[in-house]
Specification:
This protein is of the alpha/beta class. The chain has helices at about 5-20, 55-65, 85-95, 120-125, 135-150, 150-155, 160-170; strands at about 30-35, 35-45, 75-80, 95-105, 130.
Length: about 180
């Protein structure tokens, strides 16, 4: 369920995504919050890199060393794109209880992965997932990236499901989640 400060926190994630876009990098931004308190914010930092995702950069920033967070802290991860399997799986290892994303990723998003057949550690993990918060704003950033990128992967039609979703999201009256 959408909460009162989701729009504002997603705005911060969008600002992080814009920072990546300004450097020619795929515009994913992420923020981690406990209620209204921001614990960290980050964005994707390298083009064509499978490890420097916004969420992973954020996790390294917040959870390095002797952190004292627990699931009772009601931590929420805000991200401009539905997390991939690496970021979602890492999130399951952390005390994050809520995920809010702007744009679904039909190509590689795992925010709605069903965990009932997972190992016990993950099957019992309750994570609330909310999608579509400021989706149109995120879609515009991704469209700008796709229109300006020089990365061969995107220029040759890579992630066609994602590219189609971005294009569809720019249509007037585009269906929102």
């Amino acid at each position: 369920m959408v909460q009162e400060n989701d729009d504002q926190m997603m705005g911060l994630a969008l600002a992080e995504a814009k920072a990546a876009l300004d450097r020619g990098i795929f515009p994913v931004g992420a923020v981690l919050a406990a209620g209204g308190r921001i614990l960290g914010r980050s964005h994707k930092t390298m083009a064509s890199n499978h490890l420097n995702h916004a969420e992973m950069n954020l996790f390294h920033q917040v959870f390095m060393g002797d952190y004292r967070f627990s699931r009772d802290d009601d931590l929420t991860l805000y991200t401009t794109l539905e997390p991939c399997i690496m970021c979602f799986g890492t999130m399951l290892h952390l005390p994050i209880t809520r995920l809010v994303f702007a744009m679904p990723d039909a190509y590689g998003g795992c925010g709605h992965v069903r965990l009932e057949n997972s190992p016990p550690r993950h099957a019992a993990r309750a994570v609330e997932v909310v999608g579509g918060v400021r989706r149109a704003d995120a879609c515009k950033l991704f469209a700008k990236f796709l229109a300006t990128t020089t990365e061969a992967f995107w220029l040759t039609g890579g992630a066609s499901h994602f590219q189609a979703a971005v294009k569809a999201g720019l249509e007037p009256n585009a269906a929102q989640i």
